[in-house]
Amino acid sequence: MCSVKEAYKQCEVVIKHHSKTFYKAFSLLPKDERNAVWAVYSFCRRVDDIVDEGRNPEAELVLFKAEFDQFLKGEYDAENPSWLALDDVFGRYEMDARAFHDLIKGQEMDLTINRYETLDDLLDYSYHVASTVGLMLLPILAPGKTDVLKDGGISLGLAMQLTNILRDISEDLDRDRIYLPQELMRKHGVTECMLRAGVVDDSFISLWEEIASEAESLYAEAFKTMKEYPLSSRIPVRGAAYLYREILPTIRSKKHKVFGQKHYVDEETKKEIVVGLSSL
Questions:
Q1: Parent domain of 263
Q2: 195 has pLDDT over 80
């Protein structure tokens, strides 16, 4: 059996490989909080991989839910570094099990729903797959401040998920998923055929920008309460938000060409944002 220290290390490898943006931002945390974030991310990644890469995702997700229920009772596979690290996290912090259950529910939605009619429908989905992560992390990043920071944390998760959706339109199409609300597509005159053809015209740009405007408003809401975070976590949280928000102007600078490619914030801009955090 690996040690808790080794378990955290393996969780770190997971986030370092799959999310360089989050890894860069949360590496600024003190050691204990940083390790706890790695463990929570590993949990989230496991659920995501079941849905996106599992051979039989429905059955695998049912099994994972049962494993998590057993984990909450103190029964888990101690040979699994993800469960071992997460158990240490639950022992150190007042974790919210409901947020974990809600995340799993969001991933279940991806197994049965591949189109969303309204923006509200999309925001409900985004809460389940993204805002829940913020709620999981709040007891780690701001102990005792969960009530004050909850709404801002939810807004940040929604903003980040909308950003993901606007960046990953092409990748999602490959999985026959269209997260752009059908109601807004009709409003702007964008059809599924146009998306599949990779058409970037005024209609597509106006649709993209309407959703981007919603994301930017949600980022602004999230920033209103960030001063309530302890300084040790305020900088990493703000950094993650800035780094993610920067994806939107990056896509604009590429003339909204999101088809057949995935845009990332360049390393120089990332460095400028991280360095600029020290003056906040």
A1: 142-279
A2: yes
